[in-house]
Design brief:
The protein is α/β, with parallel strands linked by helices and about 400 residues long. It is about 45% helix and about 15% strand. It has helices at about 5-10, 15-30, 45-55, 70-85, 100-115, 130-135, 150-160, 185-200, 255-270, 275-285, 290-310, 335-350, 375-390, 395-404, and strands at about 35, 95-100, 120-125, 140-145, 170-175, 200-205, 230-235, 250-255, 325-330, 350, 355, 365-370.
Amino acid sequence: MEQDFYRVKRLPPYVFAEVNAMKARARAAGEDIIDFGMGNPDQPTPQHIVDKLCEAVKDPHTHRYSNSRGITGLRKAVAAYYGRRFDVQIDPETETIVTLGSKEGLANLASAITSPGDVILVPSPSYPIHPFGFIIAGAAVRNIPAKPDGTFLEALERAVAYSVPKPTALVLNFPNNPTAELVDLDFYSEVVDFCRHHNVWILSDLAYAEVYFDKNPPPSILQVPGARDIAVEFTSMSKTYNMPGWRIGFASGNKTLIGALTRIKSYLDYGAFTPVQVAATAALNGPQDCVDEMRILYKERRDVLISGLAAAGWDIPSPPATMFAWSPIPPVFKHLGSMEFSKKLLSEAKVAVAPGIGFGEHGDGHVRIGFVENLHRTRQAIRNIKSFLANYDSGDPAKRAASL
């Protein structure tokens, strides 16, 4: 029996699936594909975290159901992290909750606070769960520019003035995935003042809080006075501690929003496996040398990639944060759009990237390149791309057009 399910109908085919299928076919045919497409850390989880997991899992008491809002020790560790890192005091009982990664937390909070037809403001381009978590929940998403400048606040003003019904919530994500842009506390202060005045909730995704390369670390929106009246912030263990498969993240901030997420999660899950939560506690409370090493690793890969591609003829802005380069499509390929360019790069240069269209229509002029291959593989990718670009660097327009 065929059935058009309402929520499934609202989800377009996953854009990255086409490139992933091409990548799988190429590898099945024996081709060596250098994969920059997914933000999937390639380094192992630090040993002291793994050791704590192994220690905890030997205790049979940890094999039972856990707590859907997270074990007490981990919530206290999150509160301590906010105190050390941001000088923000979080109540571990009422202002933070453990999630199965920030993606699950965002999606479940969207379900908890959204009524069908609600208007949600989401910057474009953006990480897919930011709009689609709300779309799944039945909301209407209104895109605003992702650039954190004067146009952002102007777009907020227009959205509140002309949206019917008035927007319910705003999603923020800085350091941004995919653009890698940063903001300062002045930006957050203006947004908080605006949203408090207009009674708009703020959901801030701070998953890349610790992946930065400048001297000044990215701020938390919760550092702004009054932010906790309207804002909740999502953080994650995935990138900071090379724990993407462990699926541990957090939401912290406004008590009402945390309460809503706590209520809905109590119906949906029993929390992450307790030994994973114990190990996450050890990560937050333990030595942080591994975090410094993570930054050094990604910075080195970033510098090699950006300088190497510049020498190859592809100029890409050097990102100040995240593990991605938001890369403008080279002019000769601009007309192809990000999907076709990504497929051409895969088939001819044997390099996989994420097409920008997967992050929204305003991302179609770019591709996202992840720093997820070692330096040897990165240099090989640069050589492949250099040869690929040279094949199209022809002074004869007819020849160039024919090759495209």
